[in-house]
Structures are given as C-alpha cells and as structure tokens.
Specification:
alpha/beta, seven-stranded parallel beta sheet, Glycosyltransferase, Glyco_trans_4-like_N
Amino acid sequence: MRKIRVLYTIPNFDTAGSGKALLNIALRLNQALFEPHILCLNTKGDFFKVVQQSGIPVHVFNYLAKERPLSNMVFETWKISRKLKEIDPDIIHSFNYSSNYTEALAAKFAGIAWTFTKKNMSWGGSSKNSWKLRSFLAQKIIVQNKDMIKQFYPNSTKTELIPRGVSTEKFKSSLPDFKIKEQMNTNENQRVLICVANFVPVKGIEILIDAFDKININFPDWVLWLVGDDKNDYGKLLREKVNNLGLSDKIIFSGKQLDVKSYLNHAELFVLPTLAKGEGSPVALLEAMANGKVVIGSKVSGISDQLENYSSHLFTPKDSVELAEKLNHFMNMGIDDLTKIGLQFFKLVNENYSIKVEVESHEKFYKSLV
C-alpha cells in the first residue's frame, strides 16, 4: 500500500522559525505510513542546508502565481498545477505565513487535497478577502489557538486546533556554560531575567524595558538579557532606548543566536511582552517552559491559551506598570522557590505541548484528509 505523501510548502528557510516547525513535524511522521516532501521558492537561508541534509526530498520552484492580473494568474496557476502533479502528493500542507490563495487554486486544478496552518492573527484590512478565499479553497484548516476559531472561523466545520509543540528533551535545563555569562558581561552571581524573541515591533520588547527600568533600582543583583537578532530598525530603537535610560550595563543584547537553550539555562524568569495583536502559538514561551523557567506573558491570543491556568502570570498588553508589579513579585523570590514554580511549567509543556503530541495530532489530521 502506498504511503500518504504530504508535500509541505513554504516560501523559504531564510527566517528559520516556521521552517523549524515544518521540519520538526516532517522528520517525526510515522515512516511506515507517511512520505514527506518539501517545496520552497528558493534555496536562501542557513537553515536550508539543514533541510537538505534531512533526507526529505526537497523541490525548488515558484509555486506562487501573482494574484493580478486575473487572466495571467489563472494561466500561471494552471502551469504550477502541472508541476504539482509531477510530485504527486496526496496532501499539500502550506506553511506560508501570508494570505496568498494561488497555491490553493493550483492544488484544486491538480485535484490534490490542500490545507494550511493559520499561524498569525492577521485577517482584516487589504488581505481580508484573500484570507477568506484561502480559507474557502482549503479542505481543512489547522488553527494554533482558540481565538482564531472565535475571530476568524466561528461557524466553520473545517478547523482543527493543533498548537505548536517543542522537544522537551532538547530544551530541558542542563548545566549552564559560564562562558555565556562572560559573553553577556554578566557576573557569575547575578540573576537573569530573559526574553527570547524575533525582534519585531509586535513583540513589545520596549514594554519589558520600561517595566525593568521601573524596578531595577530595587534589584541590583538582576540583569535583563534580550536574545534575538537586533540588527534591524526595531533592534536599533531598542538599543537606543536602553542607552538613553542609562541601563546598558543591566540590559544586555545577545544578537542573533541559534542555540537559545544555552541562554535559557542561566535564566530564572522569562517574559514575552507581545502587543495586543497577539501570537499564533508562541514557541519561545514553550521552549522557556521546557527549560523549567518561570514565565510571564501578555494576555493576548496564543499566550492566553498556553497560560490558561496561570492567570497570575499574565499581564495586560502594553501595561508596563502591571508588568513591573509581576516582575517585582517574582524577582523578590529566592532561587529555590522559582525553581519549584518552573517545574510546574515543565510539566505543563511536557504533557500538553510536546513535539510528540503535535506530530500525533498532525498524523490524525492527515488521515482525515484522505
């Protein structure tokens, strides 16, 4: 009997977040039942080399037709459908972040079941009709949090809730490498508050900086580490803000890091201060929980799901005063007390958000499509 061939589509592996999520699933599918393939637009990004070495067949061609003019789009989409037929998948699973609907149309022309994962809280504005058409053409839709169902698909029977998962073994806390503290200009006895994030404005990192500034004078033994690629305009604004506050010795930027676990190992508290627009299913928060950290997050889509039973760890988005109160409460605790609370979060992620749970949910989902 032929295995179920799943073709994963993603524009590129240049920003590795979605690419890692895709590969985490594809590599762990039951090999007796499934045959994963990957299709992307180009070979950009360091992570593409990892994908190539995975052993999964990788196809590279432009599978996204321009949506206008309409006559050209239909013709180009039909040509793309012929290429998809050559790969001959049973299912196409799109990891494209955008509202583009042309690959769904190409899958229709090819007679292939097409689905996508809704990974963000974008919907309105100029892209609203594209999202509606993309959703209409999908056979089923994976959503990553409950708010997506309420806001985008309240009456749909197509949706399946599958939150992100992480490898708890990979991120489980281990002995810290003290070279990291040297690199971060942090003394061995200083305690670490950390934020690991993609440095984009929606992450609200300036709110965390403001909150830390309000209480910093009371906590001379604490520092804040900001882990992420700060070379963009937003990162430069954050650095400027820290300098203007005179906190460059207490708020330390790591720059882009592939091995975030080495930084998490040194921390006691993790904060994700995302703005009101919300998240899909933030993996950075799950990685911190898997590392046994005490986590605090803004009360927004995605984070609210993950911390559903920990309301005291949520704060109103953009409210630096409320966040400062939360920080003050936890930073006053001893290491042992924070370790005990962190263990609760490890159990939460291990039982509900492990990569094993995510993969099993996808396998069940794929079977329902064929």
